[in-house]
Amino acid sequence: MQKEAKKCARLIKESKFIVALTGAGISTNAGIPDFRGPKGIYTTRKYDPDKTFDINYFLKDAKPFYDFARDFIKTLAKVKPTFTHYFLAQLQKRNKIQGIITQNIDALHQRAGSKKVIELHGSFWRSYCLQCGREFSYQEMEKKIFKEDIPKCICGGIIKPDIVFFGEPVMHLNEAKKLAYQSDLFFVIGSSLVVYPAAMIPNLVNGKIIIVNRGEADIFSQKVDLFCNENVDDFFKKVSKFLNFPNTNI
After folding, report:
1. Looking at 118-122, 190-194, 213-217, which range is the least confident one?
2. What is the DSSP string of 191-250?
3. Which of 172, 170, 197, 201 is closest to 186 using CA atoms?
4. Which long-range contacts (CB under 8 A, 24 or more apart) does 163-169 make?
5. Which of 36, 56, 145, 167 has the fewest CB atoms within 10 Å of its CB?
6. Which has the higher per-residue pLDDT, 149 or 248?
7. Catalytic residue among 85, 109, 121, 172, which?
């Protein structure tokens, strides 16, 4: 890992327009299970994903989603950003990272201090009424989720968090594609690149690609300059030392 971390640090120093694509693997060390991992809902079947995240089912019966949401919000209240979240924020403060594209809905990048974050699948931080369009803050929704089985607006409409369900298009895809195309160094962190359309974004990169993920990633190997099958926090702690960054994460 030492050799790869040193190379990664060198590529960061040489680059001027870095973009990162992050997946569930960046947040598992924070205590948020990967939905498709060993403790995720696709594996444990604690919640039926076909009911929980399908927009057509949500419109018929939103209770399965909100049963999941109550547990997810309890988890969010207990977790904090990982070392890698803070590391990426440090790179952005140094004007190295020009944007972070994330598949996650946990907003840990923002909590770590990152500013330009493209949330392909949205997040819980904004919700809206499907009937009248009224917006609700995270704080408002947090209270309603624990008071009501299915949170509703004063007009009687069902409230939906601004996250992407199956059957809905992802958000900000064109902006994400543009960033990837402009990058001279592109990170894939904590993603196996199996969920589309996010998985196709690295194919637009003309610069160098670094993948740091526990497990394989579905991408043409000739496009990848560095692949590290490692715990992402362990890897970036080593990179941080080569860059002489202060340990400001926790």
Report:
1. 213-217
2. --S-STTGGGGGGG--SEEEEE-SS---S-GGG-SEEE-S-HHHHHHHHHHHTT------
3. 201
4. 163/105, 163/121, 163/122, 163/123, 163/124, 164/120, 164/121, 164/122, 165/53, 165/54, 165/55, 165/58, 166/53, 166/54, 166/55, 167/54, 167/55, 167/56, 168/55
5. 56
6. 149
7. 121
SS3 of residue 6 by DSSP: helix
226-240: average pLDDT: 94
Q: Whole-angstrom Cα distance, residue 221 to residue 198?
A: 17
**Is 172 a known active-site residue?**
no
Structural domains of the chain, ranges and CATH numbers in brackets: 1-31+81-121+170-250 (3.40.50.1220), 33-78+123-163 (3.30.1600.10)
Q: What is the pTM of this model?
A: 0.89
| Model pLDDT for residues 155-185, shown as the tens digit of each residue | 999 999 999 998 899 999 999 999 999 999 9
| 243 closest CA partner among 13, 3, 1, 17 | 13
35 pLDDT above the threshold of 60: no
Which residues, in sequence order, are bridge partners of residue 166? 54
Q: At what angle do helices 83-93 and 232-242 cross, to 10 degrees?
A: 40
pLDDT of 36: 53
